[in-house]
Each structure stands twice: as structure tokens, then as C-alpha cells.
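Recap quiz, item 2
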Amino acid sequence: MMNTSSLRHLDRNHLLRDFSALVDRERRDTATLLAYIAEIDRRKLYLEHACPSMFAFCTTRFHMSGAMAAKRIRAGRAAYAFPCIFDMVACGELHLSGVHQLAAHLTEDNHKVVLKRAKHKSMREIERLIAELSPKPDVPASIRALPIRKTEDRLPVETAPASAPSAQPSRALPSSATPPSRAVPLSPRRYKLQVTIGEETREKLSELQDLLSHQIPDGDPAKIVERALDALLTETKKRKAALTNRPHRAQKKSGSKTRAIPAQARREVFERDEGRCAFVDTEGRRCSSTWQVEFHHRIPYARGGTHDIDNIELRCRAHNQYEAELEYGALFMETRRHSRSAHGRSG
Ligand SMILES: [Zn+2]
């Protein structure tokens, strides 16, 4: 293992020569890593390892920080689209942060010119280049509504202006430019949540402050948000677990077997799987994503699978699609085999 005491006695020339070699090596390794990330991402190999996204794969399986993973994945995708980026990163002409920032602004038409201009540029210079490529309108100062501190005003909420629209919101890859409203940890178990609300929402909050004024005399919005979240969670879980199954009208003949999973089974499965994706990889690791969770038949309904709760599990969106594709692939191969043997017989 490396420690600084082993370097303490190294002569300066040696130290600087090694440093230079290490920087070169790191750049080449980074470019190679981007290529691997792009290819794994393209093949969606994370799915079979019980991860719903490349981002989850990097953070949970390889313990990268979210920022580190997001930066490499976005850069990897950009380099996949414009392969000269790999070379520029490998020889140190473009740093990873630069690729990450530029990624959303590169097109087939502009990438050659833009990348050439970004060569050996600092972050600040790249930001200037981006501002030139896609200028944002000046922030109109008049939109900011100052917090009202009147005594009769019961809303101790700071009314902030809406943030600029962020670059394509992606669950897997949070945008670095303008983070959406989110909870920021303050001290342990305390979070700051800042949101922009419209007039109607503000009125609803006001109404709730009045209605709940016995239980919450100070009208603290945080307490009301907590109550509102509790109520919405209960309602959503109830709906998710038992009521919405996109019923197929055509199959809703009375008494006939229907594709819709009975409410009781839905409740039991939802509870058993704790509202999380139950996809398990070959090493026994479970996905557990809660993103767009759906009910999944282990033996497909179309192949005679039942609504027995042992045949139903929850799946996140990514794993539901993944298994549907596997199933489709298997069916496709089967029909091909059938048609081939049919031809064999006739011929
Ligand atoms: Zn999943």
C-alpha cells in the first residue's frame, strides 16, 4: 500500500517524473473506464445484477458517490456518441468535468468545433463556451417575491422564484446544472426542503393552517407537509396495492377468467414485497427499487400463469421491461423453431 513516508526521501526529479507518469496513466484509465461504462450502459448489463439503472449499478455495486457516477455515466454516453472524446480525455486535452458539462450541448453538427474549442480549457472557460452555445435569458429580478413578514401573515415560508428549467429530468442521472427541489440534510435527521408553489397551493396551505389550528397552533408548514405526506402515502399505497390494474375491458366478461389481479392478491403481494422491486440476481442480491413498481407474473399470464400470490412479484419499471424482453425473446425463438420444423416437414 502507498503511504507518503515512502515518498519523503524520493529526490525531486524522481517525484515529479513519477507524478507526470501517474497523471498520464490516470487519464488513459479514465478514458478506458468511460468506454466500459458506455458499453455496459448500452447493453443494460446492470439489470441482470439487480440494479434498475447504470447509476444504481455504479453507486450500490461499486460504491461510487452519486456525483462521481453521474459524471462518468454522462461523459461515457457523450463519448459513445462522439468517440473523439475518448482520445481527448486519454491525452489530457479535455477533463472529465468538462465532458460532463459539455455533454448536453454537443450535436452531430457542432461537436467537432465545440470540442476543438474546449481543448485544454478550464471549467470556467468551458462554462463560458456553453453560455455562448445556449444562452440563457437574464434572470428577471422582478420575479423574486420577498418573504412577507407581516404579523397577520401565517405563512413563515420563503417564496422563492422558480428555478430555471433543468436539463431533461432523469431519475437515473441527476442533472448537475440546476438540481430540482430536494431535501438537503442540515444536521443529523433534519432536512431543508425548498419548493416553489403556486397561488392555489398557497391557498390550500393557508386553509389547512386554519383547519389544523387546534393541533398546529403555530401553523408550521413543515408539520402540515408531514401530515399531507402521511395522507398521500396512505392513499397512494392503497391505490397502488389494490385498485389500479389497468383493467382490460375486453376481458371483463362476467364470470370469465380475467387478466386483472384480484385486489386481495395485490394487497398481499405489495405487503410481502414491501412495495419494492423483488428482482433477485444470480448472487441473491435484490433490486429493491421503488421506481414505477408494477405487478409481475413469474409464469406469464399468457402462458397459463395464475394470480396465485406465489406467482406474482413486484418489479421496478426497468426490471419489468427486462423480463418482458427476455420473455419476448424466448417466445420469438420458440416460434422460429416451430416454423423451421414446419418447413422441415413440408420440405
Ligand atoms: Zn428492479
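The chain has eleven helices and four strands.
The beta strands are 183-185, 191-193, 294-297, 312-315.
End of item.
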